[in-house]
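Why does this matter for the project? Reviewers at the last site visit asked to see concrete outputs rather than summary tables. In response, this paragraph embeds two records directly. Each consists of the residue sequence and, immediately after it, the corresponding structure tokens. Nothing has been edited or filtered.
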Amino acid sequence: MKYVLIFFATLIGHGYMPVEAKGLTPREIYEQAAPAVVMVMGHSDSGKGGSGGTGSIIQADGVVLTNAHVVIDEKTGKPYPRLSVFLKPARVSGDTKADLARMVRATLVAYSSPLDLALLKLESVTIPLPVIDLSDSDRTKIGDRVLAIGHPEQGGLWTLTTGVVSAEVDNFNGVKGKHVFQTEASLNRGNSGGPLVDSEGHMIGVNTAIARVASDGMPITSISFSLKSSVARQWLREQGTAFSQQPALPPSGPTRAAVEVPADQPSMQQSLPAPRPVPSQAPAPKMDSQKNQRGPAQPLTTLPAPRAYNLDELVSDRSKAEADLDGMISEMRGRFKER
């Protein structure tokens, strides 16, 4: 040990400083994490309403973590009757029909409205899916670089944005145990439920809320909030989830199209048995009140805003398609019974 200390002292004396390990580049992080990021849509029975957001595959057998407000109907306070999850294509092209071709049905397993967390289970998963490491957020501090992956409205699907942690807030919005990071990484509607990732590619937060307009109508920029992964991990333990991030699949068989083609919160959680969740009586979760406030329109340019996709139109179209598909299947089953 003495000679090791002398060696390092000699290096420092000659102007050589120890080199710290550098994190991954944004490109490397994206290539590592993005395959485990999904788009989540909740659909009403009528096909006229729904919600869209982002989620993260945290177990290879198809366990997905997202926001509760993505899968709970704000009007009824109950889970959407149908949930669709879309897996990332090999290349995102900007053609939503092609980019969202890999659809899998999902079941709501549990959710917490106060924490704005929900746990989904994908159906018919027969091969291991890519996962993102739900890491320990306690090591992340103000000033650390972070990245977000999601589907911001008016932007592209599986979009990467970057920034730093700008603040930490305990008991966010008065909810005990709801600890969040404030970040300047760009988030917009559609990013909800997606991962906040550190410079090593580990998930250290669940993107939850944004602030865009102050109480006096002045615009707010670069104020977004992500629930810390330590809170999510504790909640998962309370659900009794066997959180291992290891493949847990049925015996090997033919690969089906579902995958390859088109801390003290126990009193605040609602667990739902699979496969059909029991609706909770808890009120629908609300995002930070500033998220949906809009001040007077003050356009800064005469050019139309970019519009890669409109979240409401996309969800509405998919909801109608889901309702039509269910209706067709029911009709076919009725015909078979008549025979």
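We now turn to the second protein, recorded in exactly the same manner.
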Amino acid sequence: MMSEKIAFLGLGNLGTPIAERLIHSGYELTVWNRTISKTEELAKLGAKVAQTPAEAVTPGAFVISVLSNDAAVEETFTNELLEKLGKGGIHISMSTISPETSRKLSRNHQEYDVAYVAAPIFARPEAVKSGVGNICISGNADAKEKVKPVVQTLVKGVFDFGEDPGAANVIKLAGNFMIAASMEMMAEAFTMAEKNGIPRQSIYEMLTQTLFAAPIFQNYGKIVAQHTYEPAAFKLPLGLKDINLTLQTAASVHVSMPIADLLRNRFVSALAKGRENLDWGALAMGASDDAGL
């Protein structure tokens, strides 16, 4: 059993199963969430509940954040919190945020002798529960070594991208872009088959057992083939947020991403049609809309 104390901030669809897995692995968690009711199930598992983010932290210990966007992370990690966390403290940031925000946070943390490690996770909630996700990490080398036992309890793979705090976030945005692009590709292919009288499920089963026998195509392909966008594990507005961050990151280094532009338009169109509570896979409905289905 582990004895490390961890402050855990952010209990959304992804944060909650991550926190649960840490508790089951023997870590002592103090949790905080803006909506306090989301802490109840974790409290039953033995987690302590804090009323504020700063109250949750232990000086010189670990803090894990799984927050929705850049603004939420910056608002949560106040100077008060960092001062309390202090020397020896490490912030493991698992949120999908911009690389530049990670770099800014790292600089701010250093003023309080707090280390910052970017550690975005590739996993839907069910993958976290099964421990089959993957995590990218980047940041201070010594801090990364210290946090590896923690992140390794969550996933099957941990991939180190060096000391630039923003590097792991670049990889996360690139990966999420590729997932969204794969969903668009499948949506177009399945829709073409459907308009030719071939069931979407049939083309899904054949292709994901042969040419595209990979988890992204098998798992997201099933969602697209069956139009099962509820319950939402990752809502459409978050998908739009990630694509916008991808385009901003690309523009900052003068990289053209025309497919990302198409995806952004799919997300915007889906939200305009009132689909904000559906899973981000619902961007695939755009291809059906265009085909009159």
